[in-house]
Design brief:
With 102 residues, this protein is mainly alpha-helical. It contains four helices and two strands, in the order βααβαα. The longest helix has 15 residues. The radius of gyration is 17 Å and the shape is globular. The mean pLDDT is 86.
């Protein structure tokens, strides 16, 4: 019998142009500042084909479970940090990452 495999695919950030269609005006300075950081990071992110290739490889290998694509930070560092840090530490890291101050 064939086994059922489930993949929790987490593609990370990819350069798609999605953010260009979002409305950000009027949401406050902190939101606009964070949005600017997001757009800067996305502009240097990998092309979507990278995510598709990773998913295809996972399917061909018969992988199951969580499959991540994206930068080394998103595939390895961020999940490790999320698993072994407190919620407060994660909030502080997110505030620093998005340049939201203390």
């Amino acid at each position: 019998l064939d086994r059922v495999r489930v993949i929790d695919f987490r593609p990370g950030d990819f350069r798609t142009g999605f953010n260009e269609s979002a409305k950000v005006a009027g949401r406050g300075k902190a939101f606009e500042r964070a949005w600017k950081v997001i757009c800067e990071r996305l502009s240097s992110s990998p092309q979507p084909a990278v995510a598709a290739e990773r998913l295809i490889r996972a399917l061909e290998r018969g992988e199951s479970g969580t499959v991540r694509a994206g930068t080394i930070f998103q595939r390895v560092a961020a999940p490790f940090f999320a698993r072994f840090s407190s919620g407060e530490m994660q909030r502080r890291a997110n505030r620093a990452y998005y340049k939201l101050g203390a």
